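Quick start: what a row looks like.
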Amino acid sequence: MRSIPLSLLVTVLLTCASAQAEEEFAQPPAPAASVDNQSQELEQRLAQSEQLRNEQQASSAVQLQRLRQENQRLRMQLKESQAQARPQLLSEEQTWFALGAALSLVSMVLGALLRGRRKTRREWIN
């Protein structure tokens, strides 16, 4: 990396500082009356914004309280409905097993009834 001569660096800094100083002095000072008007206007705007902020905080607090009450009411309804609900007698797997067993028994009974009074097993071949 090249080193920059110190004299060049000082010259650049001084020209930048003098240009900045000239810009600051070029602006005319504002009259005192307009400064007072601006400060009063800013104070009024500040008061209005603080008032709006306080109103929003109050409304949000009311809304938060309302939501908490509704949440509590819904929790109570959930507890009541869970207490009133009957416990399920069989789970889904047990229900399917019971249906399969019942179907097996019914098919065995029907098979025995439809078989009739055959003497031997080979009777149907003749």
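That is the whole record. The mean pLDDT is 82. The radius of gyration is 47 Å.
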